[in-house]
## 1
Amino acid sequence: MKIKRRQFLHLLLLAGIIPLLSSCGYNRMVSLEETVTAQWAQVENAYQRRADLIPNLVNTVKGYADFEQETLTGVIEARSKATSVTIDPTNLNPAAIQQFQAAQEGLSSALSRLMVVVERYPDLKANQGFLDLQAQLEGTENRIAVERRKFNEATRSYNTLIRKFPALIAASIFGFDQKVYFEAVEGTETPPIVEF
């Protein structure tokens, strides 16, 4: 009889715990954490698309013999640095994102210098191949902005859930930590001054 009573108490205890576990939000936390990871992959994809366009852009510009070699070298080096920075999406910490962002900003800066120099070459600006690449690059910059926004939205949803009661208890038990946002680089609030 003791065995049956003990089994009954275990079943009763289990029946009482299951509703608590289902409301702890563990599965939702896992789902939202995976969404953050997937969205980070989309951010990296958008940046990779930009990096993939650059060799074609550089080759198109190289066709103009008197073009400044130093500018092209700067773009190639910045692309190399930007593509060498990789981040483990399970370890999205402020330092890793800052390092990634700094490399991407270096590439953006080099591309901006290239576009300023291109202004001095009317034949190049009229080249259809260059115009197509420039349009693709502009579209890619828009995609990057959209993917960063979506990443931040996914991060906000995840962070909000793990900070709400009672999910915050399960989050601390199961090791769900807050994710960091993709933020603007310091100084980007002031528009750059372009002088010709």
## 2
Amino acid sequence: MCDDLVIMLRVVRLLKRRRRRDDVALVRVCADGELTDGEIRRIEGLPAVICCTGGRLHAVGLICPHAGVQLVKGRIVDDCIECPLHGARFALDGGSVRRGPAGHGLPAYDVVVRDGAVYVSRHPRGHGRSRHPWGACR
């Protein structure tokens, strides 16, 4: 009986530590509902932007891989973020190239809404892959 209690306490401690690590891996961006549809906002402390489109939130890399331009100055077109300089488009749901001249995609970040606030993961889940190696139009 005593051994079961010790094991259970160890599991509880482990879960508490894991939860704290998960919370540290998130960056608070804003209050839920603060972003307007079509808005692109830079995320302080991360090389990323957060976008709101159709009531959904997406976070992708800040810099266009083609020309090094900040995408916060871009616009949302057909569920893509468009580079303001050369018009490259990147899918908001994963960062893949949808229209050139960019040759590779953007990193994509997980977005979490919790307790009335919007959080973004500190680490990207991966770089978007282009459907075509040269980043051609779809």
## 3
Amino acid sequence: MSVFEGFILTPKGFMEGRLESDASGRIGALVGHAVDESTVRAGGAGIAMPGFIDLHVHGGAGHDIMEGGDAALQVSRLHASHGTTSLLATTMTAPQEDLDLAFAALAPLCFQRGHYAARVLGVHLEGPYISEARLGAQPAFVRPANLAEIARLHAVAPIRLLTLAPEVSNNQALIADLVAMEIRVQLGHTTGTYEQGVQALRCGATGFTHLFNAMSALHHRDPGMVGAALAHAEYAEIIPDLLHVHPGAMRAALRAIPRLYCVTDSTAAAGMPDGDYQLGRHTVTKCLGGVRLPDGTLAGSVLTMDAALRNLVDTVGLTLQDASRRVSTFAADHLGLQDRGRLAPGAWADLAIVDRDLQVQQVWVEGALVKR
């Protein structure tokens, strides 16, 4: 059993008190009295927040998810050290054999507990069902969505989230089938129109991948995919590394999209010194706080979720409670997980314990303390 005493962020707000996890790794006792956020930020005690949930992780600690082997475990350990308690391992657009390798390696992590690392909840299949004209940093192995291919991969390791471009031949017609397989569909890497985005939402798509990036932009006479997201989305992911999206654009999205949540889109370069790293079949370079292809295109990030939290509070100007929802609760909600992303009796004891400067001091994953 693990015990924490101090400030605790619950779904009803901050309290000062005691949290205990039981032998199963879930939250049992949770007792205390309410306090306001100003008291929490001014105090000297630790702050227990819901562990961060990252639905878009390509790598970290020098490892890329597409490598196979134990890469995903090393990635999960790196991100756990920064407060991420669960994540989706995110694949790249790639030939079938590369995806087979990655999925085979991910399968054990998706079905086992106790690795003292961020829990791998499943896979975010980012491509290959995207637009060749909006690759971003994705390699050019695009193809129309194929339900048989998706089902075969899904049987190896659970696909929880799938990014597609709705304008690509046959893609939009498969959205309802994917939803029936309990796969959430996001729109991204797309040249699609506003109308195509709205229609995809009507077919069952529920989100947008790295909002603003690698999608048709907003124009007042041609709203594009960004316009569809701002006008109609309940959920969308955004990368708050202050390189991918200007803080002003983030504020606009926060006003428009009720459950906008944050992802890192992190690469193997996260947690590593400047230099060259792999991103699928691409070689990318970390320098000046970002990751780029040789032509200068942003290629994922080196962001970790604790830095995302600080950016939301210190630069974007959110309260700590609202920022917590953006790095944890709303991502859990998008996946339909009511036992993660919140500190409440019966939920998993996934905790990121931070100090008053929002630096991570301690991390619990399913009631177990993770060594940092």
